[in-house]
Amino acid sequence: MESELSSQRRRELKALAHKLKPVVLIGAEGLSNNVLAEIDRSLKTHELIKVRVFGGERRERRALMATVCERTGAFPLQHIGKILVFYRENPEKLAPTTRAAPAAPLRRRPGASDRRTLHWKKPGRARLIERTSRPAREPSDSKRRRGKHRPR
């Protein structure tokens, strides 16, 4: 079963699995039928899952991983410490459609009437194309009343 995935696909799946949390926990009782059923359900839903194994030595976890793969038809993707990562493609699941993010429009900064437009590459990141000089603003009446403005 290992020959079914290319090394590039394995790398992509490992990168996706990095941010996942374990969805199935295997405790002291080991691999029961209920745990296998839950792993099977999770693989059907998510395709890529993490399983945490409490207790046991490394050899036991390897044997557990082989047993899960044999019984569920999953691909053993990774084994790091007590975390096991499995992948099984679900042919019934539709591939997600990738939509391109809409291009950010050209905007003006609030209160930038004397300035040229800013080009926003991403929301929150602006690059000033050209800046013109602007007269100093007078403080608003509310700042004068509150005493937060000191004349220079």
Can you offer a commentary on this structure?
- The mean pLDDT is 77.
- 31% of the residues lie in helices and 19% in strands.
- The longest helix has 15 residues, at 58-72.
- It is built from 4 helices and 6 strands.
- The N and C termini lie far apart (76 Å).
- By secondary structure, the protein is α+β, with helices and mostly antiparallel strands.
- It has a 4-stranded mixed β-sheet with strand order 1-2-4-3, with helices on both faces. It has a two-stranded antiparallel sheet with strand order 5-6.
- The radius of gyration is 28 Å and the shape is elongated.
- The relative contact order is 0.12.
- A hairpin with a 2-residue loop joins strand 3 (75-80) and strand 4.
- The chain has 2 domains: 2-87, 2-Layer Sandwich (Translation Initiation Factor IF3), CATH 3.30.110.60; 104-134, no CATH class.
Q: What are the main properties of this structure?
A:
19% strand; 4-stranded mixed β-sheet; 4 helices; Translation Initiation Factor IF3; 2 domains; alpha+beta; 152 residues
